[in-house]
Amino acid sequence: MRCDPQTSKIRVLYLGDAIVVRSPFPYLRMEPSFTAVPVTACTSHASLDFINKQMRYYMPRTSDRLKNNFDVIILSDANKDVFRPAEISWMTEAVTDSGLGIIMIGGAESYEGRGTVFPTWTTTTVAEVLPVEMQDHRYCDQAIRMVIVDREGEFGRSLPWETLGTKGVFGEGHITVLKQTSHLVAEGETFSYGRIPHLVWWDVGKGRGFSMTTDWTPSGGLMFMTWEYYGDFAINVVMLTAGRKLPEDLDVVYMIRRRSRQYWDIRLTLDSMVDIVDSFGGDFAAVTAAAMDCDGARAAADKLYFSGEYTSALEAYDFAIRLVNEKVDEARVLARRALFNVYLIEWAAVTGTFLLSGFALYTLMVRRKLYAEVRLTRLERA
Fold it and tell me: For residue 377, what pLDDT is reported?
């Protein structure tokens, strides 16, 4: 199993459409057992200038940095031409030689490039570590319905597929062929092309490859994104590809994940309160200390989650949520105090200005009779 030796977290490098469109990246970022880094590499949603900056700043600059700092690589609608040939080779070597996982998600710029409208990945070494054979000039331009064919496998047991219903329909996808020794989890049922591979994984070298031949962003997976377990699907795909055992106690684990996301939603509110209190000269130290207390409670819950103590972890997350709610209320009180001081100062300034203006007006207009009029004079020569 690949993970950070210090924290036991799975380190994810998300290349493609992580932040430029709606994607499962926020779920990966909030998952307690992950750390996730996004790198924009999709030319359909961002300019080349922006992509090049992203690649310079966040793409690992050497093969060793890629192998040592990440455990799973996601290529989601990533354009092949934005990568240097060496970077593509590094990704392949990281999988086969160092045990990283690699995931390719369907999209116009994935696989064969929408019938070679975009650059194709078929000629790269990345194609060698994926569990399906890409087909040049073959693209499914019609609706695809996900059909789970392996419900007894580890991934098939990890999600309640019976709740998917019509949300398992995708707009388009790629036509591929299974490789030997690959594990077929789901097929895509089409009108004209029959059933085609949809969800597939395999072990290759020391690592693992996973293929999803449709998109999981609004471009082709808009209905799929409305599924209640959409985020859990993405998380489980990453866990499977990293070689981590998938949870079997589905209800408790999914409740924990939702508690974790709820915590972060409230925690963002607390961060905004910190900024407000600091801007208006309030007790910044008290709010910062409160935020640290909340993070400590959340870290304790994360530790229980990592160790598989799910019942205790659920209770710990509930406590962290109650604590962060209390701290948000306390921060609001501090913010109101800080704002009251600001209002008081503004009221004093406005009132003082009004009184001074009134005094000047009274002196110059009402009391003007105190000043005697003088007759006109004219300047005469001495």
Answer: 62
